[in-house]
Structure formats: structure tokens, C-alpha cells
Automatic annotation (TrEMBL):
This is Dak1-domain-containing protein. It comes from Aspergillus ibericus CBS 121593. Catalyzes both the phosphorylation of dihydroxyacetone and of glyceraldehyde. Pathway: Polyol metabolism; glycerol fermentation; glycerone phosphate from glycerol (oxidative route): step 2/2. One of its GO terms (cellular component) is cytosol. The lineage of its organism: Eukaryota, Fungi, Dikarya, Ascomycota, Pezizomycotina.
Length: 471
């Protein structure tokens, strides 16, 4: 067992950490039934409810950003794993009100799916909900990211700070969502790290990664643009990162055209860089921007979105409108803001894949109690598939769970027996071996890995269906 941590039980770590956060901050409340941090002063009938969340391991995001002028609540999954639909839906029910609820999430497939399904179930229960997906990472680029789009990174914190202030000013739900889209379209982020992070309770990675830097590595260990070896000077490294953010001729990554008049800078510590070193990194970023004729009018520096013990940092640039600047300057009451202006596949990953498969199969769960025959159940499965297609653009052929799910339901609709439909799902699963990935973290792994195994989500669904058929 690795001994790099004081606590080695990853299963209890998240709950204990959330308890500890609430114990040290009497202005927030921890709801242990749904693993959510809640602002008890928020009134969902008077202003839009802002809920965010995702996998644990990125603290203070998102649970440390709950407070007046920021998030109304944040729901946490296990480390690097999305919270469940049940958690999210119950958080909406407990915190939301008649003013509506906006779910602000990072662009990762599990979060996108679970939060969209929870929003749909909440709508059926009478809650007015909307979802804003934040993608700000430019490291992978348009060609590589394909249908996935930009990954969510530290720019999400700026989105939530701006929307929190606008919600407090009384902005309506749809206006708030549109304002959020404007902020997302004005953001660009790139990161760099010296090493992959170490997951609590897992053996340490023995790979020697000394004297190198990975430019563009994601906050879950996803690969970035490239590895630089030997490690460059901090000035050279920052210049390479700024090239990814600022080069207008890079058609793959030029998402935003930045100017000197309205530039905001956020330098984010991934968690493992010492304070003294990180302050020097911030100065270097400002100096290198100055050499390019860019002087940020707002500078934020600190640990806003971490990656466990990741020794790295990210740079976020925001092309800010006057409304955004006013919102950024608005006061917010939360320790997370006021005091701090590629994991290996294991059994938990498999559990997560199967859990997602279950949620996808019962996307129309709220309607299932009116179906009591095989014909009706097939109809329900078809409606569930349609609901799922509204939450994701993934389709068969993208190397996802859809490669098994779509042929399974299609076979049922065509009159196949349950066993025949499972055979169709198996064939769909097998077809993913060697298939180019278009979604989830498989997009970011080396292509030679795709030929070794079928898609884990499709494989998990087949295991679930085979279990349902077993006597």
C-alpha cells in the first residue's frame, strides 16, 4: 500500500472531508444524505439557485465555493467520479425554488449525463431547471476533442463567480444561462504539470517522470498536448502555454481573440506547488504577458481548482465585458473565494461505468410505473433512448456505451427476444475494439490503447444485461 498520504481509505475520505469543511465554516451546512454542501441562507424563491459539482479531488471547487454571491449548493461524487443522478436531483429539490435552478458543470461526459438527467427528472417534479456546460481547455484542440468539445478547467470558477453575482442581483434563469454561455465563450485555459497525481488508496505510479513537463494535462490525469523533456525554464514553459492561448493563427485552438483592454487573468495552483514557488509562477505569467503587450486588468492567483496533490498550474484568460467585470468585483461570502482569491482503470472505474449504464437505461424511470407488458416496456426503452439522446450527442460509432445500448433497444423494437437483443448489444460492444474514440476520457488516451479492449461503458452495459437475463 502506498504511504504518501495520512489517510488511505478513499471511500471514507470524501465524506469526512465534507464534514470537516462544514465543521470549520458555520455559514454552510453539509447534507450527508446526498453528499452536498448547502448555503442555508439561500432562498430559491427570491433568486435563481446555482448548483455545481462533480468528482471530489478538485477542492475548493466546488464545495468550497458555496456562499452568498456564489453557489447555492455543490454536490460531490467520489474522487474523480461524477455524483449520481439521485444526489443531484435531491439537491435541486432541497435547495431550489420558484425562481428556477441553473446547474453549472464542467464538460466531462459523466457530469454532463448525470446533471442533464437529474435536470430532466427535476422538471418532471415541477422544478424549472437549466444546465450550463463549461469547457475552457484549449490544450487538446478542436480536431482531437471532436464531438466532446473543450474540457472544463479552472475557468469554471470565474463562470460561477460571475453568475453568482448576477443571480444575487435578481437576474432570471434564462438570462443567467445566456450570460453564462457568453462567459464560457470568452474563456481559455491551459495547464502544465510535472507529474501525474496520486489517487488516495491506490499504489503509487512507478513510472519515472523526472525532468519533464506535460503541457496541457487535464485535471484527472488526462494527457495534454505534449511532454517537454528536459524540463524547460519557467519562462519558456509559460511562453509555450501562452502560445496555446493567444496564437490567432492556430485554427485548432484559437477560441477567443484577446485584447489588452479587457483581459482578466487567473493563475491556478493544481494543489502541489508551494506558496512561495506559486507566487513566483504568477509573476512570471504576468511578465510574459507584458512582453506580448498584454496587461491584465484583474489578476486572480491561488488554489481554486486542484487535482489532489498535482504539482502543476494552469493559466486562464477571460475576455471580460463590463458586466463580467462588475460581477467579478461584487462581494462574495465564502472561505473558498475570499481566502483563496490519467488515472489507471480499476474496479471503481468499472463500477462507475455500470452505474452510468443503469442510469441511461432508466432515463424514463419516472414514467416506467405505467408500463406493465413487454410491448409497453419496449416502448419505455425507446422513450428512454430518446431522452438520453437529448442529454448527449454520443451515438453508435463514437466508442461509447451507445454502441451497445442503441443496438439493444433497436433489436427489441424490431421484435427480437431479450436474448437476441443482448446478442446485438454484444456485437455492438465488440465493434468498439479498435474504434476511434469520440467521447469521454478515451479521446485523450494514446490511440494504440483503443485496439486493446472494447469501450468500458459498452462492456459494462453488456455485463448488466447478461446479469438481468441470468436465472
Amino acid at each position: 500500500m502506498a504511504t504518501r498520504h495520512f489517510i488511505h481509505d478513499g471511500a471514507t475520505l470524501v465524506q469526512d472531508a465534507l464534514h470537516g469543511l462544514a465543521l470549520s465554516n458555520p455559514s454552510i451546512r453539509y447534507d450527508d444524505d446526498i453528499k452536498a454542501i448547502i448555503n442555508p441562507r439561500h432562498d430559491g424563491d427570491k433568486q435563481v439557485t446555482l448548483i455545481s459539482g462533480g468528482g471530489a479531488g478538485h477542492e475548493p471547487s466546488f464545495v468550497g465555493l458555496v456562499g452568498d454571491g456564489l453557489l447555492s449548493a455543490a454536490v460531490s461524487g467520489f474522487i474523480f467520479a461524477s455524483p449520481s443522478v439521485h444526489q443531484i436531483q435531491n439537491t435541486i429539490a432541497r435547495v431550489g425554488g420558484s425562481a428556477g435552478t441553473l446547474l453549472v458543470i464542467m464538460n466531462y461526459t459523466g457530469d454532463v449525463l448525470h446533471f442533464h438527467l437529474a435536470a430532466e427528472k427535476a422538471r418532471l417534479a415541477g422544478f424549472n431547471t437549466a444546465v450550463l456546460v463549461v469547457g475552457d481547455d484549449v490544450s487538446v484542440g478542436r480536431q482531437k476533442s471532436g464531438k466532446v468539445g473543450r474540457r472544463g478547467l479552472a475557468g469554471t470558477v470565474l463562470v460561477e463567480k460571475i453568475l453568482g453575482a448576477l443571480a444575487q442581483q435578481g437576474m432570471a434563469l434564462e438570462e443567467l444561462r445566456q450570460a453564462g454561455e457568453e462567459v464560457v465563450n470568452s474563456l481559455a485555459t491551459v495547464g502544465a504539470a510535472l507529474d501525474h497525481v496520486h489517487l488516495v488508496g491506490k499504489p503509487a505510479d512507478p513510472t519515472d517522470r523526472t525532468d519533464q513537463v506535460e503541457v496541457g494535462m487535464g485535471i484527472h490525469n488526462e494527457p495534454g498536448c505534449y511532454v517537454v523533456k528536459p524540463q524547460p525554464s519557467i519562462s519558456d514553459l509559460v511562453d509555450q502555454m501562452l502560445d496555446k492561448l493567444l496564437d490567432p493563427d492556430d485554427a485548432d485552438r484559437a477560441y477567443v481573440s484577446f485584447t489588452d483592454t479587457n483581459l482578466c487573468l487567473l493563475v491556478n495552483n493544481l494543489g502541489g506547488v508551494s506558496n512561495i514557488e506559486f507566487s513566483a509562477v504568477t509573476k512570471t505569467v504576468v511578465d510574459r504577458l507584458d512582453r506580448r503587450g498584454l496587461k491584465p486588468i484583474r489578476i486572480y492567483s491561488g488554489s481554486f481548482m486542484t487535482s489532489l496533490d498535482g504539482k502543476g498550474f494552469s493559466i486562464t484568460l477571460l475576455k471580460a465585458s463590463p458586466q463580467m467585470l462588475e460581477a467579478l468585483d461584487a462581494p462574495a461570502i465564502t472561505p473558498g473565494w475570499s481566502t483563496r482569491p490519467r488515472p489507471d482503470v480499476d474496479e471503481h472505474d468499472l463500477k462507475t461505468s455500470i452505474e452510468r449504464a443503469c442510469y441511461k437505461l432508466i432515463a424514463a424511470e419516472a414514467e416506467l410505473d405505467r408500463y406493465d407488458s413487454v410491448v409497453d416496456w419496449v416502448q419505455a426503452a425507446g422513450e428512454a433512448l430518446q431522452a438520453l439522446r437529448q442529454a448527449t450527442s454520443a451515438r453508435a460509432g463514437d466508442r461509447t456505451i451507445m454502441d451497445a445500448l442503441e443496438p439493444f433497444i433497436t433489436a427489441l423494437q424490431a421484435g427480437a427476444s431479450a436474448a437476441g437483443a443482448v446478442d446485438a448489444a454484444r456485437a455492438g460492444r465488440n465493434s468498439t475494439q479498435g474504434m476511434t474514440a469520440s467521447f469521454e476520457r478515451a479521446v485523450y488516451v494514446p490511440e494504440e490503447g483503443w485496439s486493446r479492449v472494447p469501450d468500458p461503458g459498452a462492456a459494462g452495459l453488456v455485463c448488466l444485461l447478461e446479469g438481468l437475463l441470468s436465472p
